[in-house]
Design goal:
Elements lengths: L1 E5 L3 H12 L3 E5 L11 E3 L5 E3 L5 E2 L3 H10 L5 E3 L3 E5 L7 E5 L7 H9 L6 H10 L1 H13 L5 H7 L5 H15 L8 H13 L6 E4 L3 H15 L3 E3 L4 E6 L5 E6 L8 E3 L3 E4 L3 H7 L2 H4 L2 H4 L9 E8 L10 E2 L5 E6 H4 L10 E6 L10 H15 L10 E9 L24 E3 L12 H31 L7
Helix pairs in contact: 1-9, 1-15, 2-15, 5-8, 6-8
Bound molecules: flavin-adenine dinucleotide.
């Protein structure tokens, strides 16, 4: 069976990978000239990489880790010490650590929290632990139910002082969905806490050893094409064409640089585009269907990824850092954390600016000036002097992952759609992980499974009707 997939992000590529494994022929069409979507990366004129986002892999990413194993590239994940490291806003240049000892879950997490006395009081720790009892007792059902509340509302309901937001959960919300705890759904934080507390290495972090486009997406493309699939860059889906029944008859691919548009007609079609461009492209005949109408409730959140190259080392910390700054979210010195970006003498900081809604339209110079002002608090010994900023790169994503405000879970669509030959994949589709790389890879796998299942059902129906003796009736 030939399957057209629009979008070569992790979801589209994962879907194609699992389709070739099942003996099908995926044809992936990517709008841009670069693989990876939200993990895309580019080289500047000096040969330095810059990326759409600072990306962290977690121990609690089973589908992603399985994919690395299946591709034979598991050595490309650089695992860091099992810890979370946070800046202390009132103590510039000083860090507070949550170190996870070598104990089974959840005791390693409990020990990490109990042993950190910089951030939470004992009373706050006890109240928080009591707040988590329903989570322990009721698991995923409870997590889903809490989608009606923001994280701050959840804290209030459990009489947990909102100060814990200042200490921990502003940083956590910003890192998970680029918004603050007043806006984020409690489901998002509870999902992350569940994974981190249930699995011994759930919160352990890894950096990829180079740019995701080359080190993760390209091996996926090689795997797919070596087994008969195709991946085409510069191939934007322009229109989803329908037959008289309302099913898909073809994907119209826009011809670039004066070339004519072309229709690709195959057996099955998949959108692996983010939800925002998909909404724009929906055929009019589908728009009134409840399944597609629910997509109006999902929209991408803005975020900015900043790269700063310095003339000297600012830190030797080989880990992700939570800035706890009002402007910034997480950051890392990539010259320490990532083999391909390594430099023993000079730092390259990659920083996520979030929430970014007030910044996304501002010029790069303003964004860099504000970031440098924040860095004076994070690196008071080096910034503004003696460290010199050599160059910078700002990558803005006005609509990134879907904004996970309360109530969004109900609108995340299943991978199969009411249209028999059309499927969705992408981190925003319904799967038990958040809008993340793990969610994208899992959604791709679920879409491939749904396609194979439906194909098998059609084939066995045909076999049954072919083998039925003439004249038999039900
Ligand atoms: C700044 C930032 C930091 C992040 N940090 C992390 C992290 O630390 N850990 C983590 O797990 N996740 C992180 N994420 C989230 C993660 O990157 C995404 O969840 C994941 O990559 C989404 O994959 P996807 O395939 O669903 O969508 P996308 O990556 O958006 O892929 C969609 C693809 O569709 C293509 N497309 C769009 N329109 C068309 C068209 N008309 N025709 C053909 N193709 C089209 C796009 O160009 C794109 O390539 C981060 C994201 C950002 C932006």
């Amino acid at each position: 069976m030939r399957v057209a997939i629009a979008g070569a992000g992790l979801a589209g590529l994962s879907c194609a990978k699992y389709l070739v494994d099942a003996g099908h022929i995926p044809i992936v069409l990517e709008r841009r000239d670069v693989l990876g979507g939200k993990v895309a990366a580019w080289k500047d004129k000096d040969g330095d990489w810059y990326e759409t986002g600072l990306h962290i892999f977690f121990g609690a990413y089973p589908n992603m880790l399985q994919l690395f194993n299946e591709l034979g590239i598991e050595d490309r994940l650089q695992w860091k010490e099992h810890a979370m490291i946070m800046n202390q806003p009132n103590n510039p240049g000083v860090y507070s650590r949550f170190d996870f000892p070598d104990l089974p879950a959840p005791w390693n997490g409990v020990a990490a929290i109990l042993r950190n006395n910089d951030m939470l009081t004992w009373e706050e720790k006890v109240r928080f632990a009591i707040g988590l009892v329903p989570l322990m007792l009721r698991g995923q059902a409870y997590v889903e139910e809490m989608d009606q509340y923001s994280w701050t509302e959840w804290l209030r309901q459990h009489r947990i002082p909102e100060r814990v937001n200042e200490e921990i959960f502003i940083a956590m919300s910003k890192s998970l969905n680029f918004i603050g705890p007043d806006e984020i759904s409690a489901t998002v934080i509870l999902t992350a806490l569940t994974r981190f507390l249930q699995e011994k290495n759930g919160s352990q972090m890894a950096f990829l050893d180079g740019a995701p486009t080359e080190r993760l997406c390209q091996p996926l493309v090689d795997y797919i094409t070596e087994r008969g699939g195709e991946v085409h860059l510069n191939a934007p889906l322009k229109e989803i064409q329908l037959d008289s029944q309302g099913s898909v008859s073809g994907f119209l691919i826009q011809g670039l640089k004066g070339a004519a548009d072309q229709t690709l007609a195959v057996d099955t079609y998949v959108s692996a585009m983010p939800v925002d461009p998909l909404k724009v492209m929906l055929p009019d005949r589908w728009r009134e269907m409840d399944y597609f109408k629910q997509l109006d409730e999902l929209a991408g959140v803005p975020v900015i990824n900043i790269h700063l190259w310095f003339d000297r080392k600012l830190t030797d910390i080989d880990h992700l850092l939570f800035s706890r700054s009002p402007l910034l979210s997480v950051y890392a010195d990539m010259s320490n954390t990532c083999r391909e970006y390594a430099n023993p003498d000079k730092s390259m900081l990659e920083l996520v600016l979030a929430p970014a809604k007030d910044w996304i339209v501002r010029p790069d110079e303003e964004i860099i000036a504000a970031t440098m002002a924040e860095l004076e608090k994070l690196f008071p010994q080096q910034i503004p002097t003696p460290a010199k900023l050599l160059k910078y790169k700002v990558v803005k994503t006005p609509r990134s992952v879907y904004q996970a405000t309360p109530g969004r879970q109900a609108y995340r669509p299943s991978q199969p759609t009411p249209i028999s030959n059309f499927y969705l994949t992408g981190d925003y589709t319904l799967q038990r992980y958040l809008a993340s790389m793990e969610g994208a890879v899992l959604s791709g796998k679920l879409t491939a499974q749904a396609i194979c299942r439906d194909q098998q059902a059609i084939m066995s129906e045909q076999t049954i009707s072919e083998s039925e003796p003439e004249g038999s009736s039900v």
